[in-house]
Amino acid sequence: MIAINAVFECSSPNLKTCPPPTLPEYAFIGRSNVGKSSLINMLANKKDLAKTSSKPGKTQLINHFQVDESWYLVDLPGYGYAKVSKKKRVEFQKFISDYLKKRDALLLTFVLIDSRIEPQKIDLEFMQWLGEAQIPFSIVFTKVDKISGSEWTKNLSQYKKRLLEDWEELPQIFVSSAQTKMGREELLTQIQDLNTEWGPQLHEKLKQLKIERDKKNASN
Ligand code: GTP
Ligand code: MG
């Protein structure tokens, strides 16, 4: 089993207040209640690292968890939560889209999809938006412990078919359960591989951006 040590670093209401971008990071997004925070706890092997709830709308801020002092897991609020006022939804979308579009340290975004339900317009549109904004993403099907193996296999193949109506190529797809820890090794291996492959280049880029920021601050 891959062992990691994740610790909570901070919660940020917007991109500006996020920690300085110095380490590669991986964000988790998806509809409210899909299991983003639970998946982060499962990966970290810590029950209460990220706050979870059976009621949607629990995570409201951008939460950074530092792992092994070398990368971040980022828990984001969910979208599509009907009880949030329209004004709040718009503000929310702005800070999340800002983060996803402008966060220089973001290496990959995991889009979580509930394995039990048919493709939802809101998720398909969200992935379209990621594609148009050229934000790399993988898909994680969640809560597979709640249905049988044959059911999620069928749902997964239907989902792939639906995606191929919009996309020429499928993104990488993972299947997970926060309860049985299914998918944990695959997800962590993917993250470790990306850290190895892109980490050095990203560090260089982030270093350059910091120099530019410092210069700008000094001249102000
Ligand atoms: P928001 O922060 O509100 O956007 O939700 P979230 O996507 O972070 O979901 P959260 O992790 O809080 O989980 C929502 C509910 O689903 C909780 O009751 C979890 O216990 C449950 N849950 C999440 N993942 C799984 C899973 O893999 N299996 C099962 N059985 N339940 C899960
Ligand atoms: Mg959450």
Second-tier CATH architecture: 3-Layer(aba) Sandwich
CATH topology: Rossmann fold
Judging from the principal axes of the Cα atoms, what is the shape?
Answer: globular
- The number of helical runs is 5
CATH domain class: Alpha Beta
As residue ranges, the low-confidence spans are: none
- What's the CATH H-level homologous superfamily? P-loop containing nucleotide triphosphate hydrolases
Secondary structure category? alpha/beta
Strand content: 15-25%
Strands ordered across the widest β-sheet: 1-3-4-2-5-6-7
The molecules bound to the chains, other than polymers, are:
guanosine-5'-triphosphate, magnesium ion
Task: Give an overview of the whole structure.
42% of the residues lie in helices and 19% in strands. It is α/β, with parallel strands linked by helices and 220 residues long. The chain has one domain: Rossmann fold. A 7-stranded mixed sheet has the order 1-3-4-2-5-6-7, sandwiched between helices. The longest helix is centred in the last third of the chain and has 36 residues. The termini are far apart. The relative contact order is 0.16. The chain binds guanosine-5'-triphosphate and magnesium ion. The site of magnesium ion (MG) has 5 residues, from helix 1.
Report a brief summary of the structure.
The protein is of the alpha/beta class and 220 residues long.
What are its keywords?
single chain; 220 residues; alpha/beta; Rossmann fold; seven-stranded mixed beta sheet; 7 strands; 19% strand; globular; binds guanosine-5'-triphosphate; binds magnesium ion
